[in-house]
Protein 1
Amino acid sequence: MKQPLAYIHPAAKIAPSVVIDPFVTIDANVEIGEGTRILSGATILEGSRIGKNCTIFPHAVIGAIPQDLKFVGEETLAIIGDNTTIRECVTVNRGTAAKGKTVVGSNCLIMAYAHVAHDCIVGDNVILANATQLAGEVIVDNHAIIGGGTLVHQFCHLGAHIMVQGGALINKDIPPFVKAAREPIAYTGINSVGLRRRGFSSETIREIQEVYRYIYMSNLNVTDAIERIEAELPATPERDEIIQFIRNSKRGIIRGYFA
């Protein structure tokens, strides 16, 4: 259903079941999947690809050009997965030549006033709370929950199943399965509640805790801690995910905090 007071470019590809409220703007080179609703005042610009059963709230802007002076008009995308909710005044910029696309995955909740900058890759089942700001080329892995008002430095990598306190300033990578809080941002334990809610067994949670004891509580540097983990702890998918994350970290991981 398309309101006559909405502007829809004739070249936009919109599934028949999409609901478009008055005063929506939809540009050329836009694709919107079945069952999605675009609420009044939202703006969907060139290069946007929005999946099925999404809801885009008033005054959100999807697909605006990057806020990057290196951008010279190259054709890039802003991709939103299925079943994702984009709340009021959210901005999701499209990519640059660096990656060619900005991606927000499926089943995500991007709360009001959040910003997802150029070339960010946000996984599935992610929550970005109100006014969270992701700088360019940030990666957020599946099931991460980022508290409101958090600022994330460009190129940071936030691991899967993490919980970050609101108002955090993040300038290092946050490895998977942890809670991060304090000022400056630091490891404060395992996100055990979130892991249990997602079906992780008590045994698996204990194994994850043991890995992080080596990393944060052994008085070893990170390189030595990983060598000890590989030598002394049995291989599991979670152990290996943590090790790979840390080895691939370009900005270094957050430090531990213990009162």
Protein 2
Amino acid sequence: MDKAESIKPYKDDGRAKGEQVRDMFDSIAPAYDFMNRAMTMGIDRIWRRRAVDCVAARCPADIVDVASGTGDLAIAMARRLPSARILGIDLSDGMLEIGRLKASEAVPDAAVSFMTGDCLDLPLADSSADVVTVAYGVRNFADIAGGYREMLRVLRPGGMLVVLELSVPTSPLVRPLYNFYTKRIIPAAGRLVSRDTSAYSYLPESIAAVAQGSDMLALMAEAGFADCAFRRFTFGACTLYTAFRPLS
């Protein structure tokens, strides 16, 4: 089990992680986009652009964006790949409602749709996607290895997985500042902006706990992916992982 799987938003709540994560994101959905920009000082847009670059290089026809949230990555891909069919899937109806509204305004003519679904039981046929993406969502999975196996299942042979995930900076000079910011500033800001006082304490805990770098690649390889690789951005505060479903 990855350590992040045991980190839950509401520590005194006996429910499964998936249920807690769904309710947490329903709760913070109205503040989510604002907090994302504030927490990363807008750099998340640059990180997301790097993920879109990887996807666009494949010229995919069918893309599935898992843990799609409010649709930022799905919309960015639609802008870059207007002929692609993009499906965003998320546990949280509250987040998806915002995503649908944003997509209707930002890319009204694109083939972007959203549906409620669980990453551990994707409502999709085998071998139905050319690319599967996840942005800032893997650490919220109740079973990371199981999520990767599901994404492998829906990818076509040769298809690409692109995962963008927050991570702990590798630089010993940057890490103390990062720890202060994520453990002190972000939870305090979250309490001011969102009515959910637990959500923004869960965030730094889940980032610190989730597998990173080569450990994350090992989880992908164990699920059946090949040619797994990663790149770190901004002193290691974000990591882009790529992997492929083998051709046979």
Protein 3
Amino acid sequence: MHSLRRSCLILIFGVGGCTEEDASGPGGFSPQPPLVTTAVATVHPLSNIVESVGTTRANESVTVTAKVTDSIRHVRFEDGDFVDQGDVLVELTNEEQTALLKEAEADLQDARTQYERLKDLLDQQSVPVSEVDEAGARLSGARARYQAIVARLDDRLIRAPFAGVLGFRQVSAGSLITPGTAITTLDDVSIIKLDFALPEVYLGSVHPGLELTAASAAFPERKFDAVVRTVGSRVNPVTRAVQVRAHIDNPEALLRPGMLMTVRLATTSRDAVMVPETALLQRGAETFVYLLDDGRARSTAIELGVRRGGRAEVRRGLAPGQVVIATGLVKVRDGGPVRTAENAETLPEPSDA
């Protein structure tokens, strides 16, 4: 016959009362099993994520200089302008070349007239063929001199070799410049090249066409998609790393050369058994989980893999479909009974984030 004890209840409004409880446990108490939640160990594809840091470079980059020594007559750009290929950036003085061009043009016209006249006389057999040949040679020489002066005049128009964004202007109108004098910089940022290094162990997993994501501290909320274009032909014998170059489309021109970016890429993919990280318990160097076995908790040692997105990979010690205790582990004892707050739930698909 069970012993009875009396317990007095003091209510919020000060009204007391006594009840009788069945005390079957030690000291007259009968505690309930701890309340837990469960999850099912499921298989999901899991990629190996490799992280690195890289530096951005322009798709094309050049320091604009002059080809000749002369003074600047007019500067046609401002700092940071976007220009198209062939746009004139700087005009050099060209009065002498313009005068020479007019002279060469007159010589060319005269040589052409003489050649045409002698050619007509040759048709009438009034002049020897040798005179016509000499006139043709003079015409060719006059044309070559004219084209040379046109080329020299064109050298006095400094143009953009490709479309891109200009840097700071380094010269002013009236400045005397020589070949090699820096006028400005020009960068094609429509595509950004991202160079980074990876340990040689990943050499077999990285190849052209592999997609990756990159992030910059300048845009913390944004991810930039990139594609591996080139894998270096050599491994650094000191760092044991290989250089990789990826391309990032940059239509908004947000990225600029010289930026530091964090790179994350997925290499090989495998099927992995996943459980919530909250189900893991550590005892020294050993990791274990509690399995739910007919209403009781049974501890089992496991071998952990990677952790990702609040979930952990179990490489050994757990089979897909087994139910583990996910929360409420504080009062759980090996072999002890437990109460489940809800039915076992399947884990959501893990992400690589």
Protein 4
Amino acid sequence: MENKQSLSGQLASSEAFVSVAASLICIVIGLLLGLVALAIINVEHAFGDGLMVILTSGLKSARNMGTVLANGAPLIMTGLSVGFAFKTGLFNIGAAGQYTLGAFGALYCAIVLQLPWYLCLLAAMVLGAFWGAIPGIFKAYLNINEVITSIMFNWIGLYLVNDIMYGKGKSPLYDLATTKTHSLRKVAPQSMIPSCGMSGLFGNLQSVTIAIFIAIFFALVVYIVLSKTTFGFELKACGFNKNAAQYAGINDKRNIILSMTIAGALAGIGAGLYYLSTVAEWNPQVSTALPAMGFNGISAALLACSNPIATIFSSLFISYITVGGTKLSTQYYTKEIADVITALIIYLCAFSLLFKNKIRAALFGKRRAADLGKGGDD
């Protein structure tokens, strides 16, 4: 009996338990506030035709769940991109631009060079890494805030890629008939990520591929690198205190550049998983807005407290309620209400430290909670 109590006490005092509990509180309160928003718009249908549709649509058909997985895989990668940078003391708001360069690399190698999918994915990773390294170099050698340079390179990357892909309508990537890039199913089937039977499990939805397993694999790799290796310790040390890291003999400039390079590579892979799974084609003629997947990665990272394993679940949750939002009856609501609910949940994540302290206080009392908070949140 004492051993069981001891184990439960260790679990409750662990940072992982408290973080998960705080995130669940954010989700529950966010959903309740979302219900209030739905009621303000249309009180009669707020619960049955509103919140319940969002929460249950993914479970109602295999194809809906397949859509959740197809959109969840790239979101896991952009969440890892942002979360990895957070862990090393940097804010990679440039994931959208790195994602865009990754999309270009994957599609160019597929449509023009006719390469197999794994080489296309490698190209997406390399171009994303290159675009992430540039803000890292500015940060390391010129001490220019990475937020500023990342935002600038988001737009530079978007319009550069659009111009190359469109090519005044004569680019080998551009399909005049659809005003999008050529469909991989028609021109480069060898470049599609294989399904390996996944599509058959989800209502023959062809965009469901092994991409979700590739994303989970990278999440595990990032977790091991950050938690179990000297390299990961050095990266986090530079993020916690650059001066102390320098005193300890750690090359802070190199680590800043590597952090942003790895973050960019992860975002680039996310784009490769999305477009090589043929979830969609890029529309260079009208893509004047940055890919939402890059910014949604910030939401996934915040909800997961930048934990790589938790990012898998937070990304799938965000993908799930986004898909549910598309199933709302347009007679009562617009699909964007799902984004409002997600935004509410993410906004509440800003109070996660407060929730953590409240949970500790409820479990151990105020004094013990303060001691645990000092040890767990540093």
